[in-house]
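Closing statement on the protoporphyrin IX containing FE sub-project.
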Amino acid sequence: MAELKEKSKEKGEVIVRMSEKEWEYVKNINVKGDYKEGFETLTPKEQDYTVKHLRDSVGIEFLAGLIFTFIIMVWSLFMDAPLKELANPADTPIDERAPWYFIGLQEMLIFFDPWLAGVIIPSILLVGLILVPFIDPNKETGIGRYTFRDRPVAVSVFGFGFAMWYTLIIIGQFFRGPARMFYWPWEDKTVLKEMPVSEMVNFHIAGGFAFFILYIGACMVLPQVIFKNFYKTLGVVRYYIFMSLFAIMLLIPIKIFLRYVFDVKYILSLQIFNTTLNF
Amino acid sequence: MERQNKEEDKKIDIKETQVWKAVFGDLLFGEFKPLSPFNSLMRGIAKIMQLHPYNMSVGGRRIITYTFCLGGLSVFFFSLLACTGAFLMIYYNPDVNSAYANIEDMRYIVPFGVLIRNMHRWTAHLMVMFVALHMLRVFLTAAYKPPRELNWIVGVILLVMTLLASFTGYLLPWDQLAYWGVTIGTSMGENAPLLGAKGPFAILAPGKDVNSILVGGTSVGQPTLLRFYLLHAIAIPLGIAGLMGFHFWRIRRAGGVSGPL
Ligand code: HEM
């Protein structure tokens, strides 16, 4: 092979090392170079290892478009888009629901007041999403390939958020009946369930403050102490931004847990001037 | 050479069958023929729009697997929505007295109306799902890392606009589902702190808060329908199309979709 390399240098050729998969691909495709069988091949220097991407991809894309048009048409032939009775502002349906992609927000309305569930939390999550490229301290690892091992924190945190979002959607869409009560799939959704008898309680105000101070403190300090390396790679600013966003995200399942297990309505209920802020 | 021949004996290459050749053969997969109008057209369009590089390295080409097509499929769904939507616009009037009847006409009178309406609705669902999945793939392949940060941000805006496009379209049939779905959605704006009439520390009166900009009053009604229609049929699609153009241009500037380093 070394001998071959020398030879090809003289002729202005380069050696391209290919995996078997690449070779399978190149073999079947019209490329300008003279590919020889094997995983190490000789090609002329300029066009060397390029394939005619434009030509091939337009054909494939056209085909994909045809296939999806066909699928959607068949789907549309057999399933009608919903249309209920004419809108009637006087008649609130018992099973009032948002479209499925917003049902996660509606699901959160059960656990948080509307200003939190509908405005503050989604805005913060959106800001968090926009900040992703700047929070991630590692600018090189894993580009262009799927890997968990090389970026475990990034993948787990994002995966957790994504999964939580879709879990909320699935619960909201399939497990909620009239009055947003929880229904198992085998329960009849046309009958209104009785409201649960147990009274919901608030934390005592001192308890509420204590909870938040402890929670935020734990979120900010613990990882710093336990995962020293993690703190070092992130740096101070990134660390605090990341941990705040993470703490807010984690608050959603925590609140759901507290509600279902301990019937907690609000962790903290604050009276500021004439306004009540419930968390 | 020998190994190659043996492989070919064993399996039938679908690209070698007559049907395939007749349908796709020279037109799509064959060499470009200088005189083929279709090829010149496709090549011309693609070149002008700079959507695909003309040539691509084998390594780069190899990574384009199925999940790397989710963005492209979102584009496809968007164009399908534009086509079916244009058709629906012919028969639809954003007026609370006629909107519902227009949709009923679409179902029972307009030829192929029900098919087009169904396609528009189901494709919208698909687009929302595929855009979200595309985001997942971009994250999992770390494609937001430099030099692609800006494209990630543009993507997040595209995601929000896709959701808004679906949401504004949801009201247009003016049935119970639409009315109450949108009432729930817009009531969130009402509860915004400071700027919503019912939110904490409200400083604006009902009918003058942020929510009323969207709804055009204190509750969903004729002004809402008109606003949502204009957003759904004009503003948001134009915004999405413009941002998509920027999105693709940035991909080319970054040297194509991200490859393994
Ligand atoms: C209307 C919605 C969208 C459309 C039509 C769209 C379209 C595309 C297309 C066609 C590509 C080329 C590669 C591929 O298909 O995977 C792409 C790449 C990309 N998209 Fe999107 N996209 C949309 C939304 C988003 C969202 C929500 C995000 C992320 C938050 C995003 C971030 C990116 C990034 C960073 C790339 C570059 C990926 C790479 O170089 O590997 N896009 N987009």
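Residues B 68-72, 74-75, 131, 134-135, 138, 143-144, 148, 151-152, 155-156, 158-159, 162, 240, 244, 247, 251, 254, 257-258 surround protoporphyrin IX containing FE (CB under 6 Å). With this model delivered, the sub-project is considered complete and its resources will be redirected to Aim 3.
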